[in-house]
Design goal:
Layout: E1 5-8, E2 24-28, E3 31-35, E4 51-56, H1 67-80, E5 85-88, H2 105-111, E6 122-125, H3 138-141, E7 156-161, E8 168-173, H4 177-180, H5 184-199, E9 205-211, H6 226-241, E10 246-249, E11 255-258, E12 265-269, E13 285-289, E14 293-299, E15 303-310, E16 315-322
Length: 323
């Protein structure tokens, strides 16, 4: 596989979307999950960029700290631009997660916040450190309550077709909390699963995207924190070995595009509500902003376009990755 290069471009335009494969399979430790045809209200067709999605993280504050404003802009963006689904990169519920699938926070922080018709699409979440404060598995069980919340396990995979072709994108959704908490047995088990999942990717997989809560590089406050260094130590070699194109995370409450040494680009989209500062002038940072907002990705078999959008709807940054 050839190394991908990235090209900054400040004149990119809105992109379209194709159809997701009617039967997507979820792979999780020993089980397979099937989902029905995507009936997202924002689903449209565009042969140039047949897959589009929003990524947001660190959001669950009952509408406070600009969560509501970010949610409104997400809804407007998804209404005016094609969007297949939303990825949540963790810390879904502050301050200590949810206690059950009946916890009122489901309404205060999710159902009554992301109300736009365009956001009644599938959401694919992972767990953040704050989600471990109560019952993290309640977020798995909520998948049987909510039509749009799709979290079959603490870590899982999803293959999405690029339009009507056989080309696909492999998403590997992981749980980085055991890495940061020094849970050796669970870490080794999950890393073996990640390695096997990426190794078994078929020839039809054009892009590999791993989604985890903790970054392995950042220019936020956790630039030298133990959890950042731990995730880098545990995960970086696996990402490089399998030439993972994007590692998408949150944890630091900002918007970042980082390109450390090696193959993988890292995007941080952790600005769904409260903010933390960023450092400028770091060599591996292509973009950093301590602004509320989210990220938007558009893919075809040769290119990925990424945008960082703030809570007023302004596009702060645009870039393109290509083969």
């Amino acid at each position: 596989m050839k190394r991908r290069d990235f090209v900054k471009n400040t004149a990119l335009t809105a992109i379209g979307v194709g159809l997701i494969n009617p039967l997507e399979t979820f792979a999780s430790t020993g089980e397979t999950y099937l989902e029905s045809e995507d009936l997202s209200p924002a689903l449209k067709s565009d042969e140039d960029f047949p897959l589009n999605f929003i990524a947001v993280g660190d959001w669950g504050r009952s509408g406070e700290s600009h969560q509501l404003e970010v949610a409104k802009r997400m809804g407007e963006w998804a209404n005016n631009n094609p969007n297949n689904f939303v990825i949540s990169v963790g810390d879904n519920f502050y301050p200590r997660g949810v206690v059950s699938e009946q916890d009122p926070l489901w309404h205060y922080s999710f159902e009554n916040i992301y109300t736009a018709h365009s956001l009644q699409c599938d959401w694919y979440p992972i767990l953040g450190n704050h989600d471990y404060g109560s019952d993290p598995d309640a977020q798995i069980r909520y998948s049987k309550v909510s039509r749009r919340w799709n979290m079959p396990a603490r870590y899982y995979t999803k293959e999405v077709k690029l339009g009507r072709t056989d080309d696909k994108v492999l998403f590997v959704f992981i749980d980085t909390n055991p890495f940061a908490r020094d849970e050796v047995a669970e870490t080794e088990k999950q890393v073996a699963w990640i390695d096997e999942t990426l190794a078994q990717a078929s020839a039809h997989i054009k892009w590999k995207i791993v989604v985890g809560h903790h970054p392995f590089y950042t220019v936020g406050p956790r630039i030298k924190n133990y959890d950042t260094l731990a995730v880098r130590r545990i995960l970086a070699k696996t990402l490089e070995k399998h030439q993972v194109d994007i590692y998408l995370s949150g944890h630091d409450h900002s918007l970042q595009h980082l390109k450390p040494e090696g193959f993988t680009h890292q995007f941080i989209s952790g600005a769904g509500s409260e903010l933390t500062p960023v450092q400028s002038g770091v060599s591996y940072s292509n973009f950093e902003a301590a602004e509320h907002g989210f990220m938007y990705f558009s893919l075809n078999k040769n290119r990925i376009r990424a945008k960082a959008i703030n809570d007023t709807g302004k596009v702060l940054y645009e870039t393109e990755l290509k083969r």
